[in-house]
Amino acid sequence: MSAGQRPPLTAWIAGVGFLAPGLPDWASAAAVLRGEAQHIAAPSLLPAPAILPPAERRRASRVVKTTLAIGLEAAAQAGADVATLATVFAASGADGHNCHALCEQLAGDDRQISPTRFHNSVHNAAAGYWGIATKAMAPCQVICAYDASFGAGLLDALGQVVVDRQTTLLIAYDSEYPQPLFAKRPVPDVGGVALLLTPERSERSLAEICVAPSGQPAATMAEADLEALRLAIPAMRALPLLQKLARGEGGSVVVDYLPAIPLQIAIAPC
Q: Between the CA of residue 188 and those of 20, 23, 224, what are the distances in Å?
C-alpha cells in the first residue's frame, strides 16, 4: 500500500439508528454508552411505522417496525434521501413470532397458511417492507450469519461503499422467539442498529472506520447490563464500536464476527 493510501475497507459513518430493550433510539443509547444516563431494563419500544401505507402498516411485524425505526433514524441523522440508499439487511433469523405462529398452524388440523403469514415468514420480509415504504430502487442485500450477522453485514456494506462508491445503509437486527422455540434460541427481545456508511467524508460525517480481520478476542462491555445485552441479541455485538462512537473516542476496537476471525475496527472521530 502506497504512502497516504487508505486501507481497503474504509468508510465514514454519517448516521446511526438504534433500538434495544430500554433504549428506544440512538440519543438515549449514546447517553448510556457515555455514562451520562442509567440503562433501565424495559421491553423494546417499537414506534408505529407511519411511513407505510395503511394496509402494510396493519400487517407490519415487530421486525419490520424495528428495521424501519432504526433505518429511518440513521438516514435522518445523515440528511440522506432514503429512496436513493443501497441497503444491507443483516439478521440471525427472521420474524420469531410469525415463525412460532406458522409452526402452531402446521402442527394443528387446519394447515392452510394465510398469504400474509407466508410473506412475513421469509428472511427478506423486512427488506421488502423497506422498499415499499421508501420506494428505494437501489441495490439491496439480505444476509444471515447466525451470531456473526452484524459483522457479515458490515463487511457486505463496506464492500458496496468501497467498490461501487455507493452510500450504503446497514440495518442489523434480531427478533425474539416465543416458547418453545425460545428455549433453543433465547433472544430476549427485538433490537437493532443501523449505520449509514459513505465513501467520502462530508459535513455530516461522525467518524471514519477502517475494518480488517483480527486475531484478538472481541471487546466486551465493562457495564454488566450492557455486556448481557451484547451477548443476548446478536446485532448488539456492535456495542463496543458504538460506545467509542458515542464517546467521540479514536483508536481500535475488536467486534465479534466468525469464531476465528473477529473484526478490528479502527475509528477516527470527525
A: 10, 14, 16
Other residues' Cβ atoms within 10 Å of the Cβ of residue 48: 11
Centre a 10 Å sphere on the Cβ of residue 114 and count the other Cβ atoms it contains.
11
Residue with cell 478476542: 217
Sheet holding 191-198, edge to edge: 140-143, 86-91, 168-174, 191-198, 10-19, 207-213, 261-269, 251-258
**Boundaries of domain holding 21:** 10-203
End-to-end Cα, the chain, rounded Å: 24
C-alpha cell, 270 = 470527525
Spatial neighbors of 243 by CB under 8 A, at least 6 apart, are 33, 221
Inside any domain, residue 250: no
- List, for residues 5-21, the tens digit of each pLDDT value: 567 899 999 999 999 99
